[in-house]
Design a protein that fits this description.
about 300 residues; OB fold (Dihydrolipoamide Acetyltransferase, E2P); Rossmann fold; 2 domains; 5-stranded mixed β-barrel; 5-stranded parallel sheet; 9 helices; about 25% strand; disordered N terminus
Amino acid sequence: MTSHNAPQGASAVARLMEPTGITVRAEVSRPRRHRDGWQFELSPLDRSRAGRLSAFMSDGFTRQIEDASGMLFHAEDLLGQHEVMLTVSMDALLGLTARIIGLDRGILVEAWNRQDAALEAALIAEGVWQAQRALPRPQRLRRVLLIEPDAGAAIGAISESLSRWADLGLITLIRWPIAFEEPGSLEVLHQTIEAAADQVEWGTADALIVDRGPGFAFRALSDPDLVQRLCRFPVPILTLRRAYPNLLDRLAWRAFETTEAMEAALTDILREEVRATGRKRLDAIACELERIAVTAAMARSGALYD
C-alpha cells in the first residue's frame, strides 16, 4: 500500500499501514524476543545477493495491530516472504538497523484464515457449526432484529430498505448500532447478541440481520465465544459477504453476495406470508372491520331527539 492507493476512509488497520517510511519486500526469519518487542532478520529475495538487516518490531506496534484487528499477533505470522514498512537508522554498535512500522495486509489475512479454519474444525467436531443452516426458512417477517454500523459509518442499503418497511408498517424493526472496527466492539457485540436473544425469547423475532457495512477489521465476528453464540442463535441470521474473512459469513443461515439478493430473499418471505394467509381473506377481514367500526360509531352517536 502506498499513499497513492490507500483507500479513502481507511480503517484502523489500514491506517497502521499508511506510509511514513520505506517499503521493502524481503524474506523474514529468525524471530526472537528483544527488549520490549521482537527482532527479525530480513534477507533479499534474490539469494545471489548477500546481506541481512536486523529489524525490530515493538510491543507497542504489536498491540496497535491487535487492538485494530481484534486478533492476537504471533511472531510466526511474519515469517516468510512479506512486504514490510521500515524506518532505517545507523547504530554505533549494531550498524544499520531497522524498525518495522507497517505490515502488508496479506499477513493479517493469512493469519486470520488459519485461525478461522482451526475454529471451524473444532465447531464441526462439536456438532454446532451447521446449527444455523439447519434452521427452517422463516414463514413470516414481522419482527426483525438488525445489527448495523453506528452513526459514524456509512449506512448500508439493506438498513435503508428495512427502515422503509418499518415506516410502512410491514415489519417491526429492532436496531442495535455498533462501531464494528473500534476497540471494545467484541464486548458490545456480546451484549447485543444477549439482548437479541432476549427479544427472541420474550418478544419473538423472525430473523437477525447483520449489516456491518464497509470496512476491514471485523475480527470480533470470528471470536470463539461469539461464534459459538451465533451458531446457536435460535432464529436465522442473514448477512452480506465481505472481502475479508470472518466466520459469520460461513456460519450464517444465509450469506448474500449483494444487497439486492438479500432484499429479494426477504421479499420472498413477505410474499409467501401473504400467499399463505390469503390476500382475499385479508381484504375481506379489513372490509368487515371497517364496516363494524362505522356501525359502532353510528350507534354511539345516537339520535338527538326521540
